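Entry 14. Two folds queued back to back today. First construct below, sequence then structure tokens.
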Amino acid sequence: MKSVNDPAILVESNKLSGFGHSNKSSNVYQEPVSVTILGVNISHLTQTTQFVLVSSGVFIFFVLYGYFLEAIFVQPNLKSHGLYVTFIQFVLYSLFAIIESQLKKDTERRIPVPTYILISFLTVATMTMSNLSLEYLNYPTQVIFKSCKLIPVLVGGIIIQGKKYGTRDFLAAAVMCIGLIWFTLIDVTISLNFHPAGVLMINLALVADAVIGNVQEKAMKKYGASNSEVVLYSYSFGIIYLLVALILSGRLIPAITTANQFPVSIYGLGFLLSITGYMGVNLVLTLVRVAGAFAAVTVTTCRKALSIVVSFIFFTKPFTLQYVWSGCLVVLGVYLNVLSSQRQQSHLIFIKNNFINTAINYVKRLVTRKKLAKAAISV
């Protein structure tokens, strides 16, 4: 996984065949991918049915996640306890990851502890900053900012991994920036719950998230670690960071006191928030395996749009159509980025296939020449 605000999403393989994609160009046998949803194996169903079931699960769990998150932070008495809510999430995510690892019998640690210390620190930073930002921002504004994760990821990829990006990627980032600035200016004008501190926090969360993605990708490729391993150790180490932060900031005792006064709001909603977030992340990973990255991004983007609609319906806040237009720009930026990535992958596959075919034809010609030479000598 990659963080879960949207809990962090890690994709172990981009080589799995996508929904609607053909593998006719490859002669390599691929074993069927086992697909489970909520512990039920649905591999025997058609790919379309799998896609519908998994996509529905993504919508249900993540829309509920957004609802529970806003339900917690919309309460005035709980707004200042985002750090404690994050602590509860980390404890529960670690527990869920332990259960999942035991069920999958995947208990081996492959990535070194120092790397996990860094990853867990960044995971704490992104989730804490994201949750704390809701004290100063509306939930829809936070969702829009999180949709623009491409921008810091692009910068982080260049700095950390030395990646090179095309013109379309930078165009996508520019369109996102325009939509984001527009959305923020609207929020400044009409929202009663807006403060520049919230913008700073959510941007820090995005920067940490971008670094996490690059560090995780590098570590998983190098050591061959699984998603469940990364989740387990990232969140387990993160508990220590959060506990120290709560004690040093003096927020632990006040948070526990408030939680005792509002146990349903803190622990009840906190549990529902954590279980829906954790299940949502696993379903997104399953969706990538079933339908490919493009379909997964399409579903999660539509899910974010639905989360914003649900937020405006169930939680009172000002609304203007300019929110819609600026949000559409952000969505356009997301799709430009995904289309760019898909074209790059298609181009690489085309080059690879041409190279293989050329090599095969060369070998065939070489063998034919040798046979002709032998025949000529025998004559």
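Second construct, same run, same settings:
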Amino acid sequence: MSRGGGKGPSLKDKLDGNELDLSLCDLNEVPAALPKATVLDLSCNNLISLPSDFCSLMHLVKLDLSKNRLQQLPLDFGRLVNLQHLDLLNNRLVTLPVSFAQLKNLKWLDLKDNPLDPVLAKVAGDCLDEKQCKQAAVKVLQHMKAIQSEQDRQRQRKLQAEREMEKKREAEQRAKEAQERELRKREKAEEKERRRREYDAQKAAKQEMEKKTKKENVQTRKPASSSRPAQPPRHRHSWSRSVLRVLLLVLLCVLCTLAACKLTELQRQPLCVSVNTLYEDVVAALQNHKTLQNMLQQNSQQ
């Protein structure tokens, strides 16, 4: 709070106990560093507004601001919770701050001769006597509490609307994100299906190429295999030679044995006797066989 124009009043001279009388001091502003008093009279001055720190005077019980040029009260005027008597006669007030509803101890109020809002003026009444001023305090407090409650409800509705709007935006965002995820998932599935078809096509083409190459290789090997002698007869021919060699070896052994039994002293041995007898029987059989062939030849010639 600051001093008014000129030298201003001496605050100590104006202080009488708990009462500070600054009326008729031609003040344009509320003086700074007001003494701590429960009663403050600032009537009949040229005050247009109250400083922001005026509402820190929470010890005030009675306040007289009548016959000034106040156009509005501070927004936090309701901080003066101990205020019981308030005189705002003959100012330029149109409305009261919503915080006015917090003046729960207010018992007396005068709002006459202000260009009040019609609704507020009707609630405040005329305040022509003590009873009407007391009724004005009660009714104005009720009215301001109703305004405060309505503003609180409006604020709550606004907050609720904002929350619902935020929820709606969040829901829309979630739906959008879900749609984008679904789209990405579908695109991914389509891409996977396309790649799978390409893989199947490449695999089929590779198998077809391998099959074709195999067929060409088979066709290429056929002439060579047809001109080449078969391997199994070669193996059979080698086997036949081996058998023939064994037979010749056996025959040689037989001839050696026969020669030994015929030409040596072993011819009287039992084994050689058997061999010589077998030899004579074979020779006889061969001769008979030869005689038979001759007879057959003669008959065929006749």
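Quick look at the second one. The helical segments are 11-14, 118-124, 130-227, 231-263, 270-301. Confidence is low (pLDDT under 50) at residues 2-8.
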